[in-house]
Amino acid sequence: MKKSDTEQIRAANRVDIINTLRVFGPLARVDIGQRTRLSPATVTAITSDLVAEGVIREVQKPVSATGRGRPRVLIGLNPDHASALGIKLSINEIRLMLGDLQGNIVAETVVTADTQSLDQASLNDLLVDQASRFLEDYPDHARRLVSLGVAIQGIVDAHRGYSVWSPALSIKNVNMTAALEAAFECPVELANDTNCIAHAIHKHPEYLQKPDFAVIMIGYGVGGSLILNGDLYSGHNGAAAEFGHTKYTPTGPTCACGKAGCIEAYVADYALYRDARALIDLPETDRRHPSEDEMRHLTQLARDGSTPARELFDRAGRVLGFGIANVLALISPERVVVTGPGVRAYDLLEDSIQAGIQEALIPELVGRTEIQSYPWSEDMTGKGVIALALGHFR
Amino acid sequence: MKKSDTEQIRAANRVDIINTLRVFGPLARVDIGQRTRLSPATVTAITSDLVAEGVIREVQKPVSATGRGRPRVLIGLNPDHASALGIKLSINEIRLMLGDLQGNIVAETVVTADTQSLDQASLNDLLVDQASRFLEDYPDHARRLVSLGVAIQGIVDAHRGYSVWSPALSIKNVNMTAALEAAFECPVELANDTNCIAHAIHKHPEYLQKPDFAVIMIGYGVGGSLILNGDLYSGHNGAAAEFGHTKYTPTGPTCACGKAGCIEAYVADYALYRDARALIDLPETDRRHPSEDEMRHLTQLARDGSTPARELFDRAGRVLGFGIANVLALISPERVVVTGPGVRAYDLLEDSIQAGIQEALIPELVGRTEIQSYPWSEDMTGKGVIALALGHFR
DNA sequence: GTAATTAGGTCGACTCGTAAATTAAATATG
DNA sequence: CATATTTAATTTACGAGTCGACCTAATTAC
C-alpha cells in the first residue's frame, strides 16, 4: 500500500506532461491540457516550472495560422537538458548509445569484446571502462547524464539488476548495475532486450493507448514481452515473458535452453537454419547463429518455391500460432505484435500462424486479438533501453 | 490518462482504510495509520467521516489491557451498513447469496432451473425474478443493497458483462448484467467463477501482500486466474486466464472445448474419470460430470495402490506441471496456488507437478515460484463474488 | 479601427495530508 | 491517593495541489 498525498499528485502530473510531450511532440499548452485532462491553470503552473528548470522550452515554429485568435505557442522538450546512456550487451559485442531527453539516439558506437570469457570483476571493469571512454567524447552529454540503461539477451531479474542467464555471458547470476551505478552515480536500469523493444513500441503514439499487448521477437532466439495495464510487466522475479521457452510439445527438437519442444526450437533463426540444412543443400554457417544474409537466402528459397523450405516456415508459423494461442488463453491481450529480424519472413509465416491459432485456441476466443507484424529495425533495442532509462527522469 | 486531483486522494485513502478494515478486522486508529502509512491526523479525519456515515463504528471490546497509556479503541466495518447480492449460475442451479459489508455470507439459497433451455429474455426474467424473490425475505438487506455480483463458469467478458460461452447455458454471447442493473438500479459485476475464487484468496491477509500470483482451479474443468500487480487481471477482452485450455500437446485427448490436448483434458475430473473407466472397473456415471463421491473413490483407489489409477494421477500432475511451466515462463509470478475440488488428490499430484515443471521449464527459472495448494471449500466462489461486488462500495 | 476569437496567465476558494501541539485515558509509582 | 508516565486520538497551523473564474495578449474578421 502506498499512501497518496498532494506532492505525489504534482509529481504524477509533471511526468504526465513530460511523457505527453515526449510522445506527441511539441504541443501548445491547450493541447497538453486536453491530452492530460489537466486544467489550463495547472498546465501553466507546471509548464512554467519546467521552463524555468530548462526541461522544456518554447519552440517558435511558424504554426500554420489556422483560424483567428491568439496563436498557440508550441512547447517541446529541450533535448539538451538531459542525456541517458544505453548499453546493449550481445555476444562479443557492446553497443553504446547516447540518447537525448527526447529519446533520440545522438551518438552510437560498437565495441567488440570477448564477452564469454568475462567474470564478474572484469565485466564490471569492461562496462565502466567502455562507458567512460565513450562519454569522454561527449563531455556535454556526460555532464547532464541522468541515467543508464543496460539491455541484455536472456533472462533478467530486472528488479535486482541481475542477469540470471544470458547467451552473451558464460557466468550466471551476474550483477549488471552496481558497478555502473557506483561509477556514474545515477540510476541504472537493466532489461531484457525484448522488453526494451516492447517499451519502444509502447511509446509510439499508435500503441500508447493500447494498454494490453504482447510483443514477440523472432531472431537469434524467440523472446516475449508483455505490456499490461499500460506498463511493462516483468513479473515478481523481473523475469516474465520468456515466450520462446513455452512449449509446443513435450517431445521435440532441442532448444538452446536445453529443454525439448520449446517454441524457439522451431522458430528461431538457428532452428530454421539447422533444420533446413538437413533437407536442403545450404552452406555451413561458421558462426553460432546464421547470419542475416544466410537467413535471407533461406527465406528467398521458400518464396521461390522450395518445398522443404516452404514446409519449414509453415511449421514454424504453426508452432508460433500454438504458442500465441497459449498467450491468448492466458492473457487475452488486445494485440500481439510480432517483430525482430525474423519478420523478414512474416509473409511466409502469417497464414500458418493463423492456422495454428485456429487449431489450438478455444474457439470462443478466436478473433478477439489482432495479430500483426511490426517492421524491424536494428536500433529499436537502443531506443527502448534509452526510453527505459529516461523513465528515471522526473 | 486520468487527471489527479486532491479529492481523488481522499477517495483513494478512504477505500484504502475500508479495505484494510475488511481484511484485518477491527483495528485501532493507530494500527490503521501504520498499515496504510497515513498520518494519525488523516486517519482521524477519514474515520470520523466514515463513522458519521455509519460505514464503520467503534467496537468496544475489552481489549487486553496490554501496557499503560490511553487504551486503543477498535473500529470495525459496520456489517449492517450495506449489502451485496451474489448470484452463482451453474448447470441447472442458481445459488443466491446475501453478503454484508464485511463480506460475510449472511443468507443463502439454491434454486434449480433448467438453465440450458434459457434464451436471453427468459434468462433475464429468471435472474431478476429469483433475485427479487430472494430479497423479499430480507427487506433490510434489500433496502441497503449496493451492488450485485454474478459468477458463472466459462468464458466471460467481464468489461462488457457478457457470458461469451458457458457450460451452464446453451446460448452464447449473453448479456448477464443489463437486466439486473435495470431492475435493482445498482452496479452489477460479472466474473468467471475462477476469478471469484482468486479474488477471495487475494483478500486473505496472507495473500494480500503478494501482488503477483496465479490461481489454478481443478474441478469439473480447469480454470485459471491471475492477480497481477495486486489486481485481478482480466485482459483486454475481460477473458484472460483460460489456463485449462492452454495446450499440453497438439495431439491428445479431446477437451470439452472441442480442441485436442488441452491441460483440462488430462486433469479435470471428467477427464480423469473417463480415462480411468477405460482401465479400471468403475461404475458408469450417469451425469455429465462424475460426482464428488465417484472422484473420491477413484482417488482412494490410487492411494490404495491401484497402479493404473496411480499412473493416471501421475500423468495429470505432469501435464499440470507442464502447463504451470508455461505460466511461469510467461508471467513469472511469486506463487501458483492450486485449489478447487481437485485438490482432494493434491497429495497424489504434487510430486509429478514438480517433475513436470522440472522437465519443461527453462532451468534458470526453476525454483523461483512457490507452488502450493489451497484448501477448497464450496463457498469460496460466493465469498469471492460478493467481495468483487463490494468493490463498488466507496 | 473595432469586435470576435482563441491562448495563456493570475488569483481566490477549496481540499488534502502532515507535523506539532494538545487533549484523553489509562497504568505505574511512591 | 496524587502524580508522573505512557500511549491514543484530536486539533491546529501550514504548505502544496487543482480548479473555476476572470483577466490579459495576440491574432483574424469585418
UniProtKB/TrEMBL annotation, chains A, B:
<dbReference type="Pfam" id="PF00480">
    <property type="entry name" value="ROK"/>
</dbReference>
<dbReference type="InterPro" id="IPR043129">
    <property type="entry name" value="ATPase_NBD"/>
</dbReference>
<dbReference type="InterPro" id="IPR036388">
    <property type="entry name" value="WH-like_DNA-bd_sf"/>
</dbReference>
<dbReference type="InterPro" id="IPR036390">
    <property type="entry name" value="WH_DNA-bd_sf"/>
</dbReference>
<dbReference type="InterPro" id="IPR000600">
    <property type="entry name" value="ROK"/>
</dbReference>
<protein>
    <submittedName>
        <fullName>Transcriptional regulator</fullName>
    </submittedName>
</protein>
